[in-house]
Amino acid sequence: MKMNLVATCLLGLEGLVADELRQIGAENVNAENGRVVFSGDKTLLVRANISSRFAERILILLGRFNAITFEELFESVKRLPFADFISSRDTFPVTGYSINSQLHSIPDCQKIIKKAAVESLKKDYKISWFEETGPVHKIKFSIMKDEVLIMLDTSGPGLHKRSYRPESNDAPIRETLAAAMCSLSRLKSYHTLYDPFCGSGTILIEGAMLANNIAPGIIRNFDVDRWGYIPESIWISERERANDLIKKDTDFIAFGSDIDSHAVELTKINAKRINVSSFLRLKIADIKDFEPTTEKGTLITNPPYGERMLDLREAEKIYRVMGEKFVSQRGWSYGIISPDEEFEKCFGRKADKRRKLYNGMIKCQYYMYFK
Ligand SMILES: C[S@@+](CC[C@H](N)C(=O)[O-])C[C@H]1O[C@@H](n2cnc3c(N)ncnc32)[C@H](O)[C@@H]1O
Questions:
Q1: CATH number 3.40.50.880 given to 3-153
Q2: Which fold has domain 175-212+247-369?
Q3: Among 40, 89, 164, 291, fewest CB within 10 Å belongs to which?
Q4: Is the pLDDT of residue 166 over 90?
Q5: Nearest CA to 60 among 215, 222, 175, 242?
Q6: Is pTM, for the whole model, over 0.85?
Q7: Whose CA is nearest to atom 26 of ligand 1?
Q8: Atom of ligand 1 nearest to the CA of 197
């Protein structure tokens, strides 16, 4: 049976999420602000959780309606089919947000939605008290311009948590964003990737996973695992499918370096966890000594930001060195993410293409040089 589903994502990644969902068989795919709405069955729900590289969460959309009073909110939520997913013992906390809407008090919306969900479940289970000792079914709400979406979170911890990076350095880039940069730079399995500011290795690892078609959710679990809602046979066949799709015998190589020896060590540990160590060549190096060893390369990097790691002048000095080292030549492309408006001036060249992306709350540009 088809369900309405939602994939949430970082702002700027909606198009990439919509494309990857279409590729795995999603229907009625519609990109909105910070999310993509689509439809699919239980198999697709599992597939999206295991294989989405760019989404933050996959949720079941229980209802979508307008509400400007708590009465309207309560009555509409009460009619939703919670009992199709939540058993009489399950735990169902409610969280969410409201933007530009008449119903703006989050704690009040939370209370009303919880009360309405309890009323709906009481009717179905004919009981008046819910112990809430069973598996967690997180109810999420989004209210934007008075339009309410009520959803059930199937992912649990955000999908950017692939399970390979419990350890990270001071300013790691989010895994979903690193994967998006690799995709925007059109990284392929026959390319050679470089990241000379590798930190904990996120770009190198996401690049290796993308190039070799390794599903990002391959070694993690999801909340929906514990609901008993998805037959075990679907989990088994979808994990097998993900394993079968991994490219074998590619000649993909990723060169990573960092001035900090601890960062290089972290990259090694993280790469091992997700089984991509064989693709990586790592060393400790200052950017001023950057010397690529191959004829062609796809360089994707997240250099230090002034406000977080060094002062701005230090960071801009590094951008100047990068401009000298990242020589414009055939066979090379460079992709650099930075929040610094002066980046192109310091780097010394205007990008061939730019894309606005958010690294957490920081608005950045992804500067792409293709020739
Ligand atoms: C923003 S962090 C990169 C984070 C990385 N993308 C990750 O996910 O962990 C910038 C990195 O640049 C490194 N770095 C700072 N100055 C450097 C230099 N002169 N040469 C090479 N690496 C440098 C820092 O040690 C830090 O790991």
A1: no
A2: Rossmann fold (3.40.50)
A3: 291
A4: no
A5: 222
A6: yes
A7: 199
A8: 12
